[in-house]
């Protein structure tokens, strides 16, 4: 209230103190400002220009929307006041008003345009800024300025750029750089999206870009603003090249701030003219090696955007060379970018493998899991490079100054898979140096990895698997390998302890099945792995035996599509992934590293059953051979009704009772794990019986569901689907797809065929397994989609099954 009393005084000193207190103590949200509106209005109309100036300063600082509407006419009138200082303050106050109430912008268009003709630089700067803000909030103002003001602005900028020395405006030898920058920003706004206006300003922009001195900060500021204007107006190739060259000169400047803003601008420019930016590639790469962390990171992001198929090799080479001497805190970002570049632009697999090995050798501890997983997938697919790769990894392991965890993992995996190629020097390339590796040397690598103090659970588990595989590939070293494995029997980590006991049993007692257990991994599907990394693996897709699509690098892809939309759900509500979408690392290594595996009393290898994978071969997660060889291996009895089992099931008689059946008089089941399984015959128990249902029927197709459920596992239901063709035409490329709600998990086995005979003369069968997490609370429900060809015409049928028997 004291401030209001002072403002109401007739004397200038009291008003000055009152307005100062008002601006310092109050803001636009205070209701008391309503009381000062009338005083402001009186002072804006005062005969004393200094009192008018006080009122404009106060209004420009604390103006609210209500005050703006009430006092806008006075401010508009003062834009034409005789005193330049008053006009300048009125323009600044008008900027505040149009920001608070954009609807008032049209009232200030003509007065603002008149200010652009001012000779007084202070008034001219505020007028230019007022026009800039008007153009941003009003399309009408923008159009008016483009038509009426562009020519005048270009002339003004030309006059300022060519003006002789003026002491009152000179800064570092440049006439009024602040006015330069304000004019360039207004031209930026006017030229954006308008080719005609852009043409009018091309010459002056080129003149400013070429004649402005760069040895002072003021000149650099003008050049930066000029570059930003050039990059924003409509296309002019020559000007843009000139602008990018200016940014290239900025990168050579010793001032870190100038280099940083140049890198920022180049990141925008690369989307407009990539070739012009590419000319400064060497300078940008040098910025990656800068001592300033902000410049390093920004330059690295820019280098990543510059990489293409033609320059990936030299750029990757330079980045890897710098990786060797880069700071520890920067290695993580640098490694991630290098790995992404290699994966995205790799021209050939041997180059990809070489570069990844260099990265693993220099910064393996910074490499993310999905990167070395992808490397193993690529190695698996490059069958002609297996020998070269395992030798390169052996060399890298031997020469590595410190243990890089991911390098050790990849090396151990490859030695386990291709150790015989390493010893026999298979597939030697011309670019390789000769090397002699004995069986003992190969085992030494794995032994060092498993005993090293920095090795974690994953590395040690992979090493144990590699040793088991080498015991079959190197029979003469089998005894030494067994001794190394036995040393982990007393490990405090249950995963390692269990594997040690199991693998020792395999080596010691089961020579007849060991070779089948440790066969080489099948070729890993690159397309499937990439889809899993991207989160796009189909949840439940039926794969048929029909012809597959031929893709690059020998990849085959099933023709079925994802079924996310089958239940009309978003991707978050898609059905739970089937066993085919199990964790890739677990499939690859046979190691369960989930938190559950670390709890006492829970077996780390007791993974969920996987479709089509026999328990013996699941021990090492290798592909299931045909059924007949398994029968030969377990010749003592055909114990398994289903290929689904777990290692825990092998060691648990109660678990076996639900899965296995032995005919009367048959020999006892083979003891894999030191006699944990009793030698008495196991009786068969098929569980409860449920009636069959017609799941789907149309004029051309019938689908029957037969159900079975193992006793002791009420949540899991096995379904056999039988498809019958009711039409006189043969159906080809037959594909069955299904989806379920989130509380269900659905697993589909491959169909028996992809051709359905006509007229009911034969059928196709397909096995499904549904796990109901809400068993007893919610019933099963399923939506189906059936696709096939009839007379070369694609047919798609859909349906919903809601008549499942009770109790499922």
TrEMBL record:
Family: Belongs to the adaptor complexes large subunit family.
Domain GAE: 688-805
Keywords from the named record: Cytoplasmic vesicle, Golgi apparatus, Membrane, Protein transport, Transport
GO biological process: intracellular protein transport; vesicle-mediated transport
Subcellular location per the Swiss-Prot or TrEMBL entry: Cytoplasmic vesicle, Clathrin-coated vesicle membrane; Golgi apparatus
Annotated stretches, region: Disordered: 535-557
Keyword Magnesium appears in the UniProt entry: no
Biased composition (Polar residues): 537-553
A GO cellular component entry from the record: Golgi apparatus
SMART domains linked to this entry: Alpha_adaptinC2
Cited PANTHER family: ADAPTIN, ALPHA/GAMMA/EPSILON
Origin: domain of life: Eukaryota
Protein's job: Subunit of clathrin-associated adaptor protein complex 1 that plays a role in protein sorting at the trans-Golgi network and early endosomes (TGN/EE). The AP complexes mediate both the recruitment of clathrin to membranes and the recognition of sorting signals within the cytosolic tails of transmembrane cargo molecules.
InterPro entries from the UniProt entry: Adaptor_Complx_Large_Subunit (IPR050840), AP1_complex_gsu (IPR017107), Clathrin/coatomer_adapt-like_N (IPR002553), Clathrin_a/b/g-adaptin_app_Ig (IPR008152), GAE_dom (IPR008153)
Membrane topology qualifier: Peripheral membrane protein
Protein transport found in the keyword field: yes
Official protein name in the record: AP-1 complex subunit gamma
């Amino acid at each position: 209230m004291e401030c209001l009393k002072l403002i109401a005084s007739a004397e200038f000193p009291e008003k000055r103190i009152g307005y100062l207190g008002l601006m310092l103590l109050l803001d636009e949200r205070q209701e008391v400002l309503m009381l000062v509106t009338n005083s402001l209005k009186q002072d804006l109309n005062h005969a004393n220009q200094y009192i008018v100036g006080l009122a404009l300063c106060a209004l420009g600082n604390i103006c609210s929307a209500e005050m703006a509407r009430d006092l806008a006419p006075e401010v508009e009138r003062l834009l034409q006041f005789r005193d330049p200082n008053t006009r300048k303050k009125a323009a600044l106050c008008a900027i505040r008003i149009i920001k608070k109430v954009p609807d008032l912008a049209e009232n200030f268009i003509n007065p603002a345009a008149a200010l652009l003709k001012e000779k007084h630089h202070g008034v001219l700067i505020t007028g230019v800024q007022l026009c800039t803000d008007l153009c941003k909030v009003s399309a009408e103002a923008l159009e008016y300025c483009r038509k009426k003001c562009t020519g005048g602005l270009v002339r003004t900028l030309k006059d300022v750029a060519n003006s002789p020395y003026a002491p009152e405006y000179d800064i570092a030898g440049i006439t009024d750089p602040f006015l330069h920058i304000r004019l360039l920003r207004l031209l930026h706004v006017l030229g954006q999206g308008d080719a005609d206006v852009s043409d009018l300003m091309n010459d002056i922009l080129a003149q400013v870009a070429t004649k402005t001195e760069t040895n002072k900060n003021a000149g650099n500021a003008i050049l930066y603003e000029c570059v930003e204007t050039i990059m924003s107006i409509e296309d002019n190739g020559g000007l843009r090249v000139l602008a990018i060259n200016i940014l290239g000169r900025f990168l050579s400047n010793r001032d870190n701030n100038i280099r940083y803003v140049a890198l920022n601008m180049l990141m925008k420019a690369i989307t407009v003219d990539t070739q012009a930016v590419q000319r400064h590639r060497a300078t940008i790469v040098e910025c990656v090696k800068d001592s300033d962390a902000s410049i390093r990171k920004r330059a690295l992001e820019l280098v990543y955007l510059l990489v293409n198929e033609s320059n990936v090799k030299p750029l990757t080479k330079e980045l890897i060379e710098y990786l060797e001497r880069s700071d520890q805190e920067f290695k993580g970002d640098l490694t991630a970018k290098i790995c992404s570049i290699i994966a995205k632009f790799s021209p050939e697999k041997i180059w990809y493998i070489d570069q990844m090995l260099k990265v693993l050798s220099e910064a393996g501890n910074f490499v993310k899991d999905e990167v070395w997983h992808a490397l193993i997938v690529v190695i698996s697919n490059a069958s002609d490079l297996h020998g070269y790769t395992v030798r390169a990894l052996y060399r890298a392991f031997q020469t590595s100054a410190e243990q890089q965890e991911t390098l050790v993992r990849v090396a151990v995996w490859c030695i386990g898979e291709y150790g015989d190629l390493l010893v026999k020097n298979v597939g030697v390339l011309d670019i390789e140096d000769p090397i002699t590796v004995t069986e003992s040397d190969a085992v030494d690598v794995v032994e060092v990895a498993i005993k090293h103090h920095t090795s974690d659970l994953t590395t040690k588990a992979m090493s144990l698997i590699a040793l088991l595989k080498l015991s079959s590939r190197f029979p003469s070293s089998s005894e030494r390998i067994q001794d190394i494995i036995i040393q982990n029997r007393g490990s405090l980590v249950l995963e390692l302890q269990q594997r040690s006991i199991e693998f020792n049993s395999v080596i010691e007692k089961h020579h007849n099945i060991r070779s089948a257990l440790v066969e080489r991994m099948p070729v890993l599907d690159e397309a499937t792995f990439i889809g899993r990394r991207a989160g796009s693996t189909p949840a439940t897709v039926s794969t048929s035996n029909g012809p597959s699509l031929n893709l690059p690098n020998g990849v085959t892809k099933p023709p079925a599509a994802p079924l996310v939309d089958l239940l009309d759900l978003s991707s978050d509500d898609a059905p739970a992934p089937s066993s085919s979408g199990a964790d890739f690392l677990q499939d690859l290594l046979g190691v369960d590293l989930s938190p559950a595996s670390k709890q006492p009393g829970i077996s780390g290898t007791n993974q969920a059953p996987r479709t089509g994978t026999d328990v013996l071969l699941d021990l090492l997660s290798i592909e299931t051979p045909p059924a007949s060889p398994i029968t030969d291996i377990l010749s003592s009895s055909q114990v398994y009704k289903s290929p689904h089992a777990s290692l825990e099931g092998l060691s648990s008689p109660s678990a076996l009772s639900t899965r296995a059946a032995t005919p009367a008089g048959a020999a006892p089941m083979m003891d894999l794990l030191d006699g944990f399984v009793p030698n008495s015959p196991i009786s068969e128990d098929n569980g409860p019986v449920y009636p069959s249902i017609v799941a789907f029927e149309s004029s051309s197709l019938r689908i029957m569901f037969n159900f079975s459920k193992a006793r002791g596992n009420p949540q899991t239901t096995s379904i056999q689907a039988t498809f019958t063709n009711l039409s006189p035409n043969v159906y080809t490329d037959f594909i069955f797809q299904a989806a379920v709600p989130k509380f269900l998990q659905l697993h589909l086995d491959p169909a028996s065929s992809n051709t359905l005979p006509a007229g009911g003369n034969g059928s196709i069968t397909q096995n499904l397994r549904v796990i109901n997490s809400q068993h007893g609370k919610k019933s099963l429900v399923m939506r189906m989609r059936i696709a096939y060809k009839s007379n070369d015409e694609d047919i798609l049928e859909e349906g919903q099954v809601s008549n499942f028997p009770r109790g499922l």
